[in-house]
């Protein structure tokens, strides 16, 4: 059980840290101010592309690309030396990028594009990879993942009711999806759509994943949803309708009926990334809390010496440390035993980490008083982000169900 | 210990309930949509004034006006029959109005105007009352309360550093305030400003409260703050600078150095109102959760029959009931023993109720999945509202300090 | 919603308080020491009977006797003036007695005898009352309640498998019960046994309650159970086997098949009593915590000024106040609307109060360091007592189920 | 960051597991029954010595002996091949032994003897080692650690008021200690006493640790304390008075004034052991909970399918996994960076693990209903044990203080 990153990964981590300090931290506040003041926040500010160019130049690009897959791509588009990083290797990098809202985009390591690229890498045909994966690896285009539906409880993925029906050599796509993150970005060119193909097949073989160009006739972004009042421009979360959308059968990923198999492989690393980024966010919040506790005085003492503030700081330190170790362990299981061996572990982090982050950030907000709620600090955004991740990628309750089922199966439970 | 409202209060409660169902509920969703789509959200939509006119006509106006004070005003501008309602009487009305974002404004019962009117009622001179209280009671103007400062820990109110200096027959005002709620409203005409007058006086006699016209030279709204990303138009929370603002000495409330005495009297009922409104919000969230739990199906069952959902609903019911009783008890203490007798009780509700509301609303959000985070439901706004109230009117930690001090004094503690 | 006790109840409460201070507090520590040192702890120490005699003499006897029932008994055996106390009246008395382990016995107000007396009062025939109720009211005998069974999940009372079969003019009783509290007392003379009589009847009409003399042939106390290592002498919790025990049909309470109806009526007030006693226990723990916080010094300060101790004291005060109000409300509902109107409320207090008490007492233990765990203070016993009450009289989970069902039924749920 | 135990440690872990299954589990229930029935529970039952002989024969003896110290002893008295185990190596063994109350004693790996042996190993003179360490390593004698005092807040160790005064070539010892675990055992022969020697020295150089024979004149066990009603025979926790006890100066460990230095070194590994044993206890409780959830039926379903039980099982799994990783990390820090590098980590586990264990065991108790509280299952004892460890070896609050101080020092805090 060795969580030590490789020497190459340690070097990259330090390079990412240096890049963030030198290039991202100095501009981030201004970025948010400019975006808030922009006439059209859905047009990306030029600074992002400039930073991306620098990051790519310095070899800090596509670092998420997994070991053992896509070595050719890694060499051509990424920087991990043609070998890729393991999940254990990438974890501290993801943690660092999580401290900033910009960083994941700057390093081309942001959800959902990472997960979509990984799907194309593992399951895409050479043609699919040439057409969609390569421009994604260059950040020439952006993508979205269209799975959740407004009209069914999507926590049970077998509920998905939108259809992807084979008609000759075409797939005909109908239905409505929402929380399709990234669909508001002007560069969004490709959607991965999950739909019902074979209602009579085995429960986990009924659905397909299909590549649908954003500009295919019949695709319509009905609206951009807000999360706690924010639409997250320039990426956005869309409600998207699909009306008799036709794509070639060749756009199906891996073949009809294999959506669950693909989703399974996609989600493990993606959840590790999300969780490590949240740990970075929680660390950043704890740092703000400590600085505030030392700098601010009330009732004649620094806040650090008032009431339960030290206890709360200690609890935050303990919670973060426990959460990080749990995620590193899940990453190690993914690396050494694959998705099945990490099945419970990945659900466990998905339950533990967003709640931990929400609590730590909440504490930091409280220590800052009114300012903690305002746009003067990144805390309010971090807090609603952590809250949203208790639902995104499956609600806590579903993941608890997975962990409990696997626990009870040790003692003979069927399910 | 009798929490039964008077017959008159019960009638008014039922009238408010009927008005909300008939007039407010049907338009509230559209109101939020229109506001979101407005070119200038800081211009109030006409529907508010229309509803205010109807409410006033039906005698559902200024119901917060306290018993024993302002009977003449109650007769002239309010509807409580010239006698006013006790805190116990008004509590269920405040709970009802809390279910809606519009309702408190429609009934002229919204913070901070209620608190400001109460201050003018209790401490205002006849001239001050004629000039500011009367138009406020008619909702012809709006007001703001300028207490919290960005540069000092305002949780310790003796820290307030902005100054109100006597110069002949004028007060000269300088400093910077923030979280001045309501200052963004175009009808905001009067600010109650708290500032340091006598730095050498006794700790609780150093500050004054001064009436400062919004349009006095030297008053500048530097910016409107956002809370969790939202600026709350058309009311807003302002950061306001005061530069050599001069007002007549006659604008001082009750006399120089009496700010603490006034704050004390103002805050008890105001906190009861806040807390009762939050209980209404939590009840509304629980209702949404129950309806969702029965209507939505996943894994072949209504959500009500999945995992811990029933236990969470039961816990929400228990928490709300406990919180309501605690607030009713504080209201009863205010009515029967005054602010001093209710000192601990008012701090206790300020700690218990916003946390309770945040938890109950969080549960309701979780039960709704992604939709719970979106603008399709009032839950996300309710949740951030409850969160903000763990800081507004004093952070939880300060109120816990009050309750602990009074508890320990029973056993001989000096403080 | 008036929680004010009657004048008579207030007088009695003060008399109980005075009696406890004058007579019980001075001897309680020695009582526990003597009991621990006794050769046979199952022989009651004489001080109990002496205190009982004094209490009875001063009219502080059988105060639990409910209003509207048993007026004749109240006059003859009790002291409540022939009218009985309402649940609201009795609540503060129960709270006071809960501060002490001895007090409920001294005032003849201890479980399970109170519940058993109430059953006899409401459902007993004149003969049953003469034979069993009268000596119980005099404390000449003690009783036990035999419901829970080791072999079935007794949280679902319809599971009860022990049998009470009609055979001519006799009931034949077989089966095994446990947690029969009080059965270890040498004066225990009568058991109320719940058994299956009519397996084919409607789900809630299958069981009967039968009066079984402790010395009936076939009744055997197999062992006395311990709770967290303690057997609670001289009362005890027994595992009792019943083997072909025969009693006259006249020993059935209210008639065969009516056990659920009786249990329903018995449990409401009993749970209010339990909960009020726990509130007394929590208050006593908070008092100890405050005194310790002021008296004990560490790191150069009284504990009250270290870390989060004040916040914990404030939280304890808030939790206790909320819990007490919730119980008073349940008592008021029982008084004004009967068991059905108080159905959810009684389950709500059964969930909320033991957990609250466990938390408050835990805090007080922690503040006392090692001494808090020891026999030098009543905290450890209070804590395990509160813990046990999260299971006794129905586990929290079952009561949450009741509250949730009633909540969901407001929105159309069948169950 | 490699938590993988050595191959030798893995072998030993499996041998311990096999021994526990073959030798300890079959007799443990009977052991507790026999002890409960014994006339004198303070006379150890012979089965313990029999099992110790077997364990020693199989080389499962003194496994706690640390790497790099005591290699000669390891070869002579232990079984770890003359090299000792690292903390990472020993952690899984400690976890296994924690599942049982007997196992730590059977393997001569129980507190406080392990800590005392380690002190003698690190700080003892050759004479001290020959006289006391060697018989302890053979389990010929037992020991106690006398630090905590009833009259001062011992959470602040600089408070210790008992004295150890140099008088010529003797130490004169006076004072009163309590919670001296193990002092009730008839084989207890040696006490490590901590007392004040140089009140004017630097705050951390005032105290000494002295070896005091149990039978020295002036040593008196005043009483054996109970923890939650249990005296834990045959080991016990004593209150011990020292009256003009005289021992040779040669009995001082490491020299006068070095108690803090010794305590520091002693406590790190000891806390890792305590925490890993608690993790074993929590795992055993979760196993019982799962088996019960599958075997027991209520309301027509196995408990596993009722209410929130699965969620609670998942949460227990997550909490245990997080806690174990945190302890493994602390062990790894101790191994690689020594006590100073592990300073915060050791305090963090001391806060996190007992609370976690208390919660998991509480859940398991609740799932078992009344039986969970009784002597039929090891849960009640496990629960009170976990609770006591929130105070033993320093209350949570003190350890939170350590973690917070080290966190704040990252940002410039002095303390």
CATH superfamily of the largest domain in chain A: Butyryl-CoA Dehydrogenase, subunit A, domain 3
C-alpha end-to-end distance of chain A? 28 Å
* CATH class annotation of the largest domain in chain A: Mainly Alpha
Secondary-structure-derived class of chain A:
alpha+beta
The ordered H/E elements of chain A are HHHHHHHEEEEEEEHEEHHHH
Number of helices of chain A: 12
Shape of chain A: globular
Any idea what the CATH architecture of the largest domain in chain A is?
Up-down Bundle
Largest interface: A-B, 48 and 48 residues
How much helical structure, as a percent, in the residues of chain A?
40-55%
Would you tell me which CATH topology of the largest domain in chain A applies? Butyryl-CoA Dehydrogenase, subunit A, domain 3
Ranges of chain A where pLDDT stays below 50 over 5 or more residues in a row are: none
Largest beta sheet: strand ordering of chain A:
2-3-7-6
Domain count of chain A: the total is 3
* Average pLDDT metric of chain A: 94
From the structure provided, what is the oligomeric state, counting identical versus distinct chains?
A: homotetramer
Radius of gyration from the alpha-carbon trace of chain A, in angstroms: 21 Å
β-sheet strand percentage of chain A = 5-15%
Query: What characterizes the major β-sheet of chain A?
Result: 4 strands, antiparallel
Organism (chains A, B, C, D): Luteipulveratus halotolerans
Cofactor (chains A, B, C, D): FAD
Domain Acyl-CoA dehydrogenase/oxidase N-terminal (chains A, B, C, D): 10-138
Protein name (chains A, B, C, D): Acyl-CoA dehydrogenase
